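Input sequence (97 aa), recorded before submission:
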Amino acid sequence: MGIWLLWDSFMVDMKIVGSHHQYIHTRIRLKLFYTFVYGSPNISSMDELWEEMIQLSTDRNDPWLAIGDFNVYPHPHEKSEGGPVNVYHAGFDDDKV
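Predicted structure, token format:
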């Protein structure tokens, strides 16, 4: 499992400022942070991801966009295949992220 992020350095001024096996945290054009996420479907890894995301959210004053697959579902009926449902994670409910 892993996450790849590819870009054309002639078109986008991007710097990777941090990474983890579940996300890549970047700064684009020096004033906006982007975090590209592929969240593990493993519950204990999800908790680790949310702890990391909370830390990232407290370390900055510039705008921040976190986008990707967090592998959580607001409601069980939104999942149709695979293993058990990882229901809505508490990280989406609080104002920490």
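Checked by second reader. The two ends are 25 Å apart (CA to CA).
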